[in-house]
Write a structure and sequence with these properties.
Helix content is 26%, strand content 27%. By secondary structure, it is an alpha+beta fold. The strands form 10 sheets. Strands 26-30-31-35-34-33-32 form a 7-stranded mixed β-sheet, with helices on both faces. Strands 3, 4, 5, 6, 9 and 10 form a 6-stranded antiparallel β-sheet that branches.
């Protein structure tokens, strides 16, 4: 939002204070000033001149030779503007001037005629984009006067951070900021010139409110004998332009001017294009309206509309309709000024993807008395500049009653909160300066003591959602007194370090290991389960924790598992690479226990902190992916110092392939599962790749004690390696084979790693070949071949006793 220093001076006298002082005080006490634009730079030497003579250039038909009286003498100028003529008052820049665009003027000959300056257009002055002709001033413009002074061009415009005033509906106009500056600098507010038209009824323009919940109060000012071709006075155009608003013509410009001045939007309708009057109602389903931006919009039944007896003519509080806009032939006008429900307007805005300056104000809490004031201000300005326009009646419908908000303020509590001594009388003075009415609790106008409670009545323009309780009043006192008065003291707080969050620490170790050692990519998903995810993951028969107010209609529940969300990322990631490795750490929610009888017996939903990982490839076999991911998880468990082992799951998860799944256990407690993705789920998610999935309960990992960190000397003697290939039944787990080998290979077997799984017609049905790397080593000597062969043979013998067969 932009505000003009000259405009502020219309409402409060700021003479004696520099633009920087004003900016600093507003930033410290009201709202952040993000930037300061000093307008009029480059116009210091531009003066009002008089074209005494104007003749055609002897060497160029499109150029004119002018003799200009600058007030200090006469000079010749060559001008190419088609509208230059003798007798005009113009903006003249002499040779040596530097224009706003940085152009430095020099005396030079143009086609043989000396030109000692320049007669300027609006574009060259930085006033607008108009460059077809020069700027012609009023005949009574003082000769030789500085143009910046005459036109009010030496303005300062402040850029306000909108976020700083989103709770302050009273600050969305110049008069609101002027009220703040009046309090800050101790200056009185200037009266606002207005004209109060009579109120009554009209036979050709009635107001009916069919949606009072969205518009409790609607007023319309009737205006006759207007001309829509009248331009706004130059000073008004410059003010609108300075704060980023494009001037159009008087009727529309006045509406924008009043909005920027008071913060209350209005909207002019061509009354001859309205069918009998105004109806404020909800839209019909599928109803259409072509708005002022030229877009035909399809409305829904909840949208709040301004309509006549036949059709919609505007989206309430946001944008007008094209069919009733002001045009060159407009002669009668209805000027709208209303109170709208901010929530209703914001919902319509979100659905239509539409924002406007009016909406930016209506979606805040506006003073419900502003609509009358806005019409009265518009009427006064129109009487001043409307050239014969007749101000008629104000027709109205509905009413708004706002009860005064009264809050008790305890001065001692305010002093304690602010941290420095502040007298009760000073608090009264500060609050009164911004129009709060302050009395003592027993109704007296002055407090009897420093600790006497105060009764504060909040002004209606602050009472909506801004100042609602005692701490808001303390904030008002603190900001007006000056935050710089708060003493710089070290806080007196306990310095006990927070307890370490074991689960958070474990999660960080998991991320570090999977990313840096196993080359996985971390992802983040929403905690909601969509209807599509539930259908694809075949979990529709499971109970979910349902949301009372879901963010989107298709995701009304919290997820039970992280797997469906992670699977949705797989196919898109495989578009650019042969294999992907993804993981997510997040929460899943189980509602079991919430459906018991009495409230006392009901349990809170259970939250599970899970690790979900997927490894997918278009070329690798499912069993190979499971094998590789098993290795990844073993690396993870080693880093976490947890003795996890695999076993056949008693009940595979929904995502698990029934014959290719592993359950990870700590002690005898299940901690999660690893499996090839079930074919039906892969088909439902349209996955053309093979996928291995793991879901691990991090809370269970956190509950299990970790093995202590022990230092181990680097091996001084070499290892001896052997490979082992055995044929085993499909149901025999690799973990079972490893357990047998570890027991039989003591104390020489150092490690054993699976590196291949093989199936073919040469192997018995329902059997597979498992191939291992075995490492033998002891710390005190180099093992002999005979020692290794003896232990290796013992391992083979034990495996054969378990029904496995050595493959040659």
């Amino acid at each position: 939002m932009k505000i003009s220093l000259r405009w502020l001076n219309d409402h409060v006298d700021l003479s004696g204070f520099s633009a920087d002082e004003v900016a600093e005080q507003l930033t410290m006490k009201t709202a952040l000033i993000e930037g300061i634009e000093r307008q009029g730079r480059g116009l210091e030497d531009v003066r009002v001149g008089l074209v005494e003579e104007c003749s055609r250039h002897p060497e160029a038909d499109r150029l004119s030779v002018c003799v200009v009286d600058t007030g200090k003498g006469r000079t010749s100028v060559v001008c190419g503007a088609p509208n230059v003529a003798s007798g005009q008052k113009i903006a003249f820049a002499p040779a040596g001037s530097v224009l706003p665009q940085g152009l430095k003027l020099e005396a030079r000959k143009i086609r043989g005629v000396l030109s000692q300056g320049m007669i300027l257009s609006e574009k060259e002055l930085g006033l607008s984009e108009e460059h077809e002709g020069i700027l012609v001033l009023a005949p009574d413009a003082p000769l030789g006067a500085r143009l910046a002074d005459l036109l009010g061009l030496d303005d300062v415009v402040y850029e306000i951070d909108n976020k700083a005033i989103t709770h302050r509906g009273d600050l969305w106009g110049h008069r609101g900021f002027a009220r703040e500056l009046a309090a800050i600098f101790g200056r009185p507010m200037k009266p606002l010139p207005t004209f109060a038209p009579p109120k009554g009824t009209s036979s050709d323009c009635s107001i009916r409110l069919d949606a009072k919940d969205g518009c409790p109060r609607y007023l319309g000012l009737l205006i006759d004998d207007v001309s829509a071709e009248i331009e706004s006075p130059p000073w008004m155009q410059r003010r609108l332009h300075s704060v980023g608003m494009r001037p159009i013509q008087l009727l529309v410009d006045l509406s924008n001017y009043v909005m920027l001045e008071l913060g209350q939007p209005t909207h002019p309708f061509d009354r001859d294009l309205l069918a009998k009057g105004i109806v404020v109602r909800r839209a019909l389903a599928g109803e259409k309206l072509k708005t002022l931006d030229g877009v035909e919009r399809t409305l829904i039944a909840d949208d709040l509309l301004i309509a006549d007896e036949e059709r919609a003519v505007a989206i309430a509080g946001i944008i007008g309709g094209e069919a009733t806009e002001i045009h060159a032939g407009t002669r009668r006008v209805l000027l709208e000024s209303a109170v709208f429900d901010s929530i209703s307007l914001r919902r319509t805005s979100a659905r239509q993807g539409l924002r406007s300056e009016a909406l930016a104000r209506f979606e805040k809490f506006l003073d419900p008395t502003l609509p009358e004031l806005a019409l009265e201000r518009y009427a006064w300005l129109l009487k001043e500049h409307g050239k014969g326009a007749r101000i008629g009646k104000v027709v109205a419908a509905g009413s708004v009653s706002v009860l005064p908000t009264r809050i008790r303020l305890r001065p001692e509590r305010a002093r304690r909160k602010l941290g420095y001594p502040l007298s009760t009388n000073e608090m009264v003075k500060l609050l009164s300066s911004v129009e709060f009415k302050v009395t003592t609790a027993d109704g007296r106008s002055t407090p009897s003591g420093e600790d006497s409670p105060l009764e504060v009545e909040v002004p209606i323009f602050r009472a909506g959602r801004d100042v609602t309780h005692e701490d808001d009043l303390i904030e008002e006192v603190g900001r007006l007194a000056g935050y710089e008065r708060v003493p710089a003291l070290l806080p007196r707080l306990p310095c006990d370090p927070p307890r370490e969050d074991a689960l958070r620490q474990l999660s960080r170790e998991v991320v570090r290991t999977l990313v840096h050692e196993c080359a996985y990519t971390e992802t983040t998903n929403y905690s909601f389960a969509t209807d599509v995810q539930v259908q694809k993951s075949a979990s529709a028969d499971e109970s979910f924790l349902m949301l009372a107010n879901p963010v989107t209609a298709d995701a009304p529940r919290l997820r039970r598992s992280l797997v469906p969300g992670l699977l949705e990322f797989v196919e898109s990631n495989l578009l650019r690479r042969e294999e992907v490795r993804l993981f997510e750490i997040g929460r899943a929610y189980l509602p079991e226990g919430m459906d018991r009888g009495s409230i006392e017996d009901r349990e809170l939903p259970r939250e599970r902190r899970l690790l979900c990982a997927v490894r997918a490839s278009r070329s690798a076999k499912p069993e190979d992916l499971v094998l590789k991911m098993r290795g990844d998880l073993e690396v993870l468990f080693r880093r976490l110092r947890l003795p996890a082992r695999g076993r056949t799951p008693k009940a595979p998860e929904r995502f698990a392939h029934p014959s290719m799944s592993i359950e990870w256990v700590l002690g005898e407690q299940a901690a999660g599962q690893l499996a090839a993705l079930h074919p039906s789920i892969a088909h439902a998610f349209d996955l053309e790749a093979n996928v291995a999935v793991a879901e691990i309960d991090l809370e269970e990992l956190c509950r299990h004690p970790r093995e202590p960190v022990r230092m181990k000397a680097i091996a001084q003697f070499p290892s001896v390696y052997r490979d082992l290939a055995i044929e085993a039944r499909e149901e025999i787990l690799v973990a079972h084979v490893l357990g047998i080998a570890e027991e039989a290979g003591r104390p020489f077997l150092s490690s054993m790693e699976l590196f291949d799984v093989f199936r073919s017609e040469k192997i018995a049905k329902d059997h597979r070949s498992l191939c291992f790397h075995l490492e033998y080593r002891v710390d005190d000597r180099t093992l002999t071949d005979s020692e290794v062969e003896k232990v290796h043979g013992r391992i083979v013998e034990r495996l054969e006793r378990e029904g496995m067969k050595l493959r040659i």
